[in-house]
Each structure stands twice: as structure tokens, then as C-alpha cells.
Amino acid sequence: MIDGPVPTCSKGRIGQAKSKNGCLTCKIRRVKCSEEKPECRRCTSTGRKCDYKAATGHDFKSWSRNPTPQWRNLSGSQSPPLVVALDSHPVGLLGDCSVELRAFEYFFMRGLPIFPRAIDNRFWKTCILQACHAEPVIWDAVISLSALFEHPQYSKEPVRGLRGAPRKSPGTPAKDPAHQQALVWYSRSLSKLRKGLANGMVNDTIVLISCILYICIELLQDNVTEVLQLYHHGAGIMSKYIRNTNASLIDECFTPLFYNFSALATCMDYIPPGMVVVRNLQISDHFSSLEEAEMGLYRFLSRGITHARASEQVLLFEKNVPKERMAELQAEKEFLWDELDKWYQRFRAMGFTLESSNITPAEKYLTVKLLQAHATFRVSIATSMVISEMANDDLTAEFEDMLRYGRFGIEAIRYPDGTQPPFSLETSMALPLFVCATKCRDYRIRHEALDLLQQAPPVQGLCNATTHAVMAAKVVGLEEAGLDDESMFIPEERRISHFFITSKKSETGADMWVLQYTRNIPGQDGYRIVTDLSPF
């Protein structure tokens, strides 16, 4: 781990006491706020958005006097309400360390808003903010993540973030001062965590919070292998509590994140061991909230994706498959299809749609994500156990939905200046748009999906949107090569059924990325599977 100087904190404020009533915009700019409401003069005179949200009425003192905060107990009940002050610092820091406080404020202002999933609110907007005040391990991890969020350290190469790609060793020098600072804080957090574990002073809650933050830190450095190791470690801890019916903190804070992450890991063919165990795969009779609906859907994703992969394997790459195995897969397909339809009927009964006018922006965003995931899941299950790529032509309505919801989702997470956030821990819109671009052969739909995919946040959990956009463009180009008319039908023999990026040696011996893909060529005796390579 890289060592480096830790910023020295000042011993206190000199002069007049600092007002805590200013707006968030002035706080993040570190200038004195004139404190007019609803908009201060300093912001309006410079054309900036003035925001007082969460800037007042937050005081850690009453909470920190509680010697055993409820969030520290994995089987505890309701946690205390969110209380956070932007100029607070963790226990053990003396005075005001401006560099660290600025990093925390940046995370609060620019980082937290990109975690909009309703079921993550308690983790990102309660557990994290409370824990980072009381636990130096979490504070250091948060400010390290903030530094990487502001200055992402992932590669600028079009194909990156893949398992097996060259990775930085622990001794590799930092790329720039911002990276150096992030690694210093990361190293400090890891050191404190190891020391706390050795002394028995760190419980599983802190380890799980640290684990999720470390996953984010490694994702912003393209370290996929480390991410999977961290996930496996966190899932192993969670498995101890999975049968504890009173583990409300697990259910409300950590389980949703790990369900989402395990589904994405499965979809990306990483499928790490020690996945979160699903307690109940059947859809309940009704959903009482969007959060419950999301959990109901994501419980199916890992199994559904695993089923699709298994059916692809037996159809394309295995010979003499026993009839019993084929019957088992067909029965599983029918079960998943029925349960998915049941989920959709329960969801529709809640009345949430893209056109709903009586819901919050966060609820609408989550609604769009769920409906897009549902459409994607329908495509995956409908085409499983079918070798012909022509089956996708019957799913144009689903592809239209994936595109429509993706269009809304991409716009919803843009910053006011039109840019996209550099990172999201969740799957977001990238994978559905990727499926739409590669599996839909309608020219208009697939090309608009490809365009939206190229606008998405570069890193979305394990999904590297930049790499997926390059891969999708390659698939589209290979299938449409030689077509003079946009409306021309793409025949079966030109359609790519299975593909992935791999590393090969060039004629000069250098490593190079290539797309390895298969086509299903129909004939009188069935299909002939042809494999080919195409360099980037």
C-alpha cells in the first residue's frame, strides 16, 4: 500500500466563531454565506443554485452521546433519524482539517445524489453518514472514495475494467497528487480496520460498511479482482445473519446492495462464490412499497441470469444433453416466466408508471429502473432454450420499453451542467441498453440504444459502460456490414448469438483485445455453430 503524508489538522478556529446557518453551496465553496433565505445574496449574485437542504437542524451531538447507536447492531430495530452536520468530523480528529472536510462535503454534495435507489437510502444517507462521524475507519474510506469520485482513476482505454486485464500492483506509484491523497486515506482506513479487528474493537457492521465503500474505491481504479474478493468477504459475513429473522439492519441496508451486486456479477459472468442466499423465491401476493417490489424482482435476477447462461451452454456448446436436463431447464423457464408475470401484475396494482404525476422524482426513477429491468428479464427468459436469434424479433415491444425507460433514466441522473456522474454502484441503465443494442435488430431501436449507452456513466458497478458501448458497437458493425438499406432484414447466419472480449497475442507477440463471437448457421440437419475473432 502506498504511504504518504497525512494532512495535518489545525488545532481549532482562530477568531470569530463560525456560523453554521449558511447554505450548502457556500459551504462547499468555502466562502462566507450572507444567509438570506430562501436564496442567499452571494449565490444569486453569481448565478449559482442556492440550497439550504440539510444545512440546518442537523447536530451530531445528541446522537453521539448515545454510547450504542442502533445502526451498530446487526439485529437491531429502527435506526435513529439521519443527523449530519457538514462541518462535523469523526471522533478522534482534533480541530478542523480543511482538506478532509472538503472531501467529505464533496461526497455529500456530489456523491450521495447519484445513489437514488429508495432502498439504498438508509445505507447511503443514514448508516454511512452516522458511521463516518463515529468511526475513523469509515471516515477515511468515505473521503478516499470522495477523492476518487472527483478524480476517477480508471483507465481511458476503450476496453478496460475486465477481469484478466493488467492491474496495478500495490506498489505502483499514484498517477497524480489527487490519486496519491486518495490512496493515503484508503491505506489509513485499511490500517485502522486491521488494527480494530486484531483488538476486537470492530464489529461486523463496520466491516460490511467498509467492504461496500472499499468495493466502490476499487471499482474507480478498475480493480475488478479486488472488487470480487471484497464482495465474497462481505457475502460471507452476511451469510451468518441470513437466517436471523430479526436482522432488520441486514435486510434494510446491506441485503438490497448485495442482491443487486450478485445479480450484476452473475450477468457479467463473474459469478463469485458465497452469493447471498435467497430466502424466498416466490413473489408475494402484494407489494406494500416500491422497495418491496424491487427486492421481489432482484431476488429473481441472479437465478434468471444463471438459467439463461445454462440454457445457452446446453444449446450451443454441449452435445448429447440428457433429456432430463433439458426438461429441468424447460420447467425452470416456465416457473420464472410465471413468477415474472406475477411480479408485473402486483407492480401494476401499485399504480406506479412513467406517466405518474403524483410521485417523487426518486420514486419515478426507481419505477423506470424496475420496468426496464422487467422488460430485460422478459427478453432473457423468452429467448432461453431457443437456439435461433430470430426469437428476438417477436420482442420488439420489450425492446421499445427498454429504450424508452433508458432514455428517461439517462436524463434523470445528469448533473445540471449536462455531464454524467463518473460512477454508480448499481447496474443503472447500462446493461439493459447493451442488451437492446445487441439483441434487437430493428435499426432505429438498436442505434438509439447504442447512442444512449455511450452517454451513460462510465462505471456502473461491475459493468463498465464504456467497454460495453465499444463491444455493442462492434457487434452491430459486424452484423450490419454490407447492408445498404437501414430497413434491410439481417438473416440468421449474420446474427451473432454469443460473444465476449478476450485477450490474444498479435503477430508481433503483443497482447491485444479481440471480440470472440459465435454465429448459428441454419442447415438441413440443424444449426452449425461457427466461432470467429475480430480485433478492436
UniProtKB/TrEMBL annotation:
GO terms for molecular function: DNA binding; DNA-binding transcription factor activity, RNA polymerase II-specific; zinc ion binding. Residues 22-52 form the Zn(2)-C6 fungal-type domain. CDD domains: GAL4 (cd00067). Residues 158-178 are annotated as: Disordered. Pfam families: Zn_clus. InterPro entries: Transcr_Regulatory_Proteins, Zn2-C6_fun-type_DNA-bd_sf, Zn2Cys6_DnaBD. Keywords: DNA-binding, Metal-binding, Nucleus, Transcription, Transcription regulation, Zinc. PANTHER family: ASPERCRYPTIN BIOSYNTHESIS CLUSTER-SPECIFIC TRANSCRIPTION REGULATOR ATNN-RELATED, ZN(2)-C6 FUNGAL-TYPE DOMAIN-CONTAINING PROTEIN-RELATED. This is Transcriptional activator protein UGA3. It comes from Talaromyces islandicus (Penicillium islandicum).
